[in-house]
Write a structure and sequence with these properties.
Its EC number is 4.2.3.4. By secondary structure, the chain is an alpha/beta fold. 41% of the residues lie in helices and 19% in strands. The structure holds nicotinamide-adenine-dinucleotide, ligand LNCXM5UN and zinc ion (ZN).
């Protein structure tokens, strides 16, 4: 077994993302040394893993609690956050104690949000168990929950003390979840690192094998893209050159509106996949990219088994959802688009006709 790879996220409080196989021994050193108590937040579907992590931490002398939360997106609610706060209060968690989030991106978003808000912020470590969590959700300090009005509308920037990406944990992951994670990997390819596309295109389904070298390589490259972007612009304020952290939102304006339209029962990566093709069509219709780059999006995403089209009748509701996107300013919608491969920019306030033409291209 090769040594783990460490990617440093060089923000003001730098931390490492450790990537490899069989990494459980690497977890305790990522926790703050002053912690006496630790709470392991895990979804009900990963009870055995959550308990194994809790027990291993207890063996190191920590007072280790488990907090079991609903599966997937249904954990990202104010009620579930409130439940976690009540467990922390009951167990007497202080500012020097810590939280460990074990699960997919939904669980790690919730665990980070609970860590950001308990006592106005305690330390946390994430152990993502999905491709999407490893390459994206666990890295970069965006934490949050959904509300009835939209996706991730309540949250905070709060960075983990470390992230452990144990690729062996992916063995039990359903193949559709791997596909969903690969959407964010492909996103990194189009916005910043085209080598990811070059690695995937000869045999797109090879990356669905969790033991494959190509999966490890594209996941590590995706983490490097995310680490570099957030190191330049942690708070999405436009710092660090170019459009900053907003670049990571490629495909998400329509993607989040689709998730909201589907009452959060649609895979995040699948929604982002459709959203990227929509954004690519917007860029083509605005004269920024040519049809071949749009076709490259469609071909690769479809070859991975991701959707690239959506219901024709959903437009009005999707438009209403997009108006609550965090990139919107007043009544103006703003989209991350490409000016070319790995060249991101913002398309602000496209007219209705352009928006509807782009939607027609993905809803036929
Ligand atoms: N904070 C960020 O920067 C960021 C980035 C990208 C996505 N996200 C968020 O991440 C969420 C999506 O994350 P996700 O795709 O990981 O979904 P998820 O957390 O809902 O997990 C998907 C499903 O896989 C199951 N699962 C997880 N790990 C497993 C494993 N190893 N074996 C078997 N089953 C397993 C889960 O129980 C769940 O049913 C969305 O809420 C999205 O908004 C956040
Ligand atoms: O980290 C970021 O920044 C991203 O935009 C990454 C996205 O993949 C992720 O889904 C994020 O949660 C979306 O953020 P939001 O601010 O649009 O809610
Ligand atoms: Zn995303």
């Amino acid at each position: 077994m090769s040594d783990p790879t460490r990617v440093s996220v060089a923000t003001a409080q730098p931390y490492d993302v450790v990537v490899g196989h069989g990494l459980s021994a690497h977890l305790p050193p990522l926790l703050p040394s002053e912690a006496e108590r630790v709470a392991v937040v895990h979804p009900v579907a990963l009870r055995a893993l959550g308990e194994a992590v809790r027990a291993a931490l207890a063996r190191t002398g920590l007072e280790a609690h488990a907090i079991e939360v609903p599966d997937g997106e249904s954990a990202k609610t104010a009620d579930v956050a409130g439940f976690c706060w009540s467990v922390l209060g009951g167990a007497g968690f202080t500012r020097s104690d810590a939280i460990v989030g074990v699960g997919g991106g939904a669980t790690t978003d919730l665990a980070g949000f609970v860590a950001a808000t308990w006592l106005r912020g305690v330390r946390f470590v994430l152990v993502p168990t999905t491709v999407l969590g490893m390459v994206d959700a666990a890295v970069g300090g965006k934490t949050g929950i959904n509300t009835a009005d939209g996706k991730n509308l309540v949250g905070s920037f709060h960075e983990p003390s470390g992230v452990l990406c144990d690729l062996s944990l992916l063995r039990s992951l359903p193949v559709n979840e791997i596909r969903s994670g690969l959407a964010e990997v492909v996103k990194c390819g189009f916005i910043a690192d085209p080598e990811i596309l070059t690695l995937l295109e000869p045999n797109p389904s090879a990356a669905l094998d969790v033991g494959s070298e190509v999966l490890r390589e594209v996941v590590t490259r995706g983490i490097r893209v995310k680490a570099a972007v957030v190191a330049g612009d942690l708070r999405e304020s436009g710092a660090g050159g170019g459009i900053g952290r907003e670049a990571l939102n490629y495909g998400h304006t329509l993607g989040h509106a689709i998730e909201r339209h589907e009452a959060y029962a649609f895979r995040h990566g699948a929604a982002v996949s459709i959203g990227m093709v929509f954004a690519a069509e917007l860029a083509r219709l605005s004269g920024r990219i040519d049809a071949s780059l749009v076709a490259r999006h469609r071909w690769l995403l479809q070859a991975i088994g991701l959707p690239t089209s959506y219901q024709p009748g959903a437009w009005d509701d999707l438009l209403a959802g997009m108006r609550l996107d965090k990139k919107a300013r007043g009544s103006q919608l703003r989209f991350v688009v490409l000016d070319g491969l790995a060249r991101t920019s913002i398309l602000a306030g496209p007219d209705d006709a352009t928006l509807m033409s782009a939607y027609a291209e993905i809803s036929r």
